[in-house]
Amino acid sequence: MTSLQLDHEPQSHQHGHSHSHGPAAPVSKHLRKVIAAVLIPFATAVLVGLVALWPGGAPTHERTGVGFDRQTQQGKVVNVDMVDCKSVNAVQTPMNGDTTPPSGKGRGLCKKATIEVTTGHDKGRTFVEVVQPDAPRQLRQDQGVVVAYAPDAPRDLQYSVTDVNRKFPMALLAGIFALAVVAVGRMRGVMALVALTVSFAVLTLFILPAILQGSNPLLVAVVGASAIMLIALYMCHGPTARTSVAVIGTLISLLLIGLLGSLFIGWASLTGNTDDNTGLIHGLYPHIDMSGLLLAGVIIGSLGVLDDVTVTQTSAVWELHQANPTLGVRGLYRAGIRIGRDHIASVVNTLVLAYAGAALPLLLLFSVAQSSMGTVANSELVAEEIVRTLVGSIGLVASVPVTTVLAALVVSADRTGLGAEARASAPVRAGKGRRRRTKP
Fold first, then answer.
1. Which DSSP category does 80 fall into?
2. Which stretches does the entry tag as region Disordered (predicted)?
3. Which of 180, 401, 198 is nearest to 309 (CA)?
4. Taken in order 101, 107, 112, 115, is the CA torsion positive or negative?
5. Alpha-carbon gap, residue 115 to 146, rounded angstroms
6. Is residue 179 pLDDT above 90, yes or no?
7. What is the spatial distance between Cα 304 and Cα 72, in angstroms, rounded to a whole number?
8. Which residues of 92-114 are buried (b: 16+ CB within 10 A; e: fewer)?
9. 3-state DSSP assignment of residue 84
10. Are 303 and 284 in contact (CB under 8 A)?
11. Is the distance from CB of 419 to CB of 325 less than 8 angstroms?
């Protein structure tokens, strides 16, 4: 961040190219020092926070065998036979209470799959899994599966299929994504992928273990999100004054989100313990503040969209200044905020739909129960998503004017680049006791 001078370009190169779309004109040396005076202490505080809160790994615990807290190994389906469901005691009473035996071709046939354990100390061991015809997950021969291991169960019941192995299609999709990013973004795309990797590293090596160790989730989220923001923005967009303005705008918006989130999560009495997963976490680590964990999720979830908005607004103001260096702070702000209004309308809609899509099964359950909108919104499961969405959206909306005015102030204060040249050559307006400048 001390390399803000990388914005600077020789004056001879800039002269006569005020309408180019290359690198932005430099801000003054004084302003670079002001920006550095703000960001260097902030970055130092983030680094101190990382060191002070660094967990050194997630704490160990005795496995409960519930949900994700199970011992698992890899397996493979080596054989599948079709058998009568009655012969393997697999007939269940349907939810509608109909006890009529299944009729029709294949309706009474179950799959009797032989599974081989391919990893762990029981590698090579086989067991049988019966799959009913109406089961949502069907097994086929040579399919990779994930098997759960229960050491305290009887030997014949120690292993069971808990999921399918989908690592290859997931890895292939990730590879296609990386190729698309690099093909379109080129070097910027490569740096974006590196920044994404670093972000996941901060999340998995710092944020999650630190919360499990008992550190305050809000403090951990603020430090971790700040580290991700600094690394990602400077890595993707370079250590320039333009990036620094986006960082400051993002920081101010994150602070607003944190304050609003803390206020309304407490006011609405949201516990953060609303499903089996959060219940399991609370059971294993009762010292974790679940409402604080909810607030930490709001902050981290809002960061990615905030980066997009602040960088876009800052770049828009810089480009407007290059296109018309005579524009002052007010003119740049008005033009930039018009761009921001279009951007924020689409981003807020995207954020709301993303949360609604994630909660779609839950909303379907409420629809089946024919609950009113008030009842649905009042339930803690939905109220969490509403607070998360609205608090994040308020932060996004606020980031547009905040970042736009910061960028307009910084780029208009340039007295050494294109703006100074344009203002020096612009005619002086007539005023009291002054004469309009005339050409010789």
1. E
2. 1-26
3. 401
4. negative
5. 10
6. yes
7. 33
8. eeeeeeeeeeeeeeeebebbbbb
9. strand
10. no
11. yes
Structure tokens at 199: 């972000």
Residue 259 has, within 13 A of its CA and on its CB side, a CA count of 8
Judge whether 109 and 85 are in contact, CB under 8 Å: yes
pLDDT, average across residues 416-432: 45
Q: Is the CB of residue 115 less than 8 Å from the CB of residue 145?
A: yes
DSSP characters over 14-62: HTT-TT--SSPPPPPHHHHHHHHHHHHHHHHHHHHHHHHH--SSPPP--
Digit-coded pLDDT (tens) for 202-216:
988 898 888 888 888
Summarised one tens digit per residue, pLDDT across range 345-382 is 777 777 777 777 777 777 777 777 666 777 777 777 77
Residue 377 identity (one-letter amino acid): A
- What residues does 66 pair with on adjacent strands? 69
Tokens matching residue 118:
């391919």
Instruction: Output b/e per residue, 313-331; b: 16+ Cβ within 10 A.
Output: bbbbbbebbbebbebebee
In sequence order, which residues have a C-beta less than 8 Å from that of residue 132 and are 6 or more positions away?
85, 90, 92, 110
Using DSSP, state whether 163 is helix, strand or coil: strand
Location of structure tokens 């399918």: 164
Report the alpha-carbon distance of residue 134 to residue 440 in Å, rounded: 92
Place of tokens 């990797």: 197
DSSP line for 315-380? HHHHHHHHH-TT--HHHHHHHHHHHHHHHHHHHHHHHHHHHHHHTHHHHHHHHHTT--HHHHHHSH
What is the Cα–Cα distance from 32 to 140, expressed in whole angstroms? 63
Structure tokens at 224: 């971790």
Residue with tokens 């807290």: 69
Using alpha carbons, select from 417, 436, 414, 435 the residue that is nearest to residue 426: 436
Q: How far apart are the C-alpha atoms of 272 and 389, rounded to whole Å?
A: 15
Average pLDDT value for the chain: 77
Pair 337, 404: CB distance under 8 Å: yes
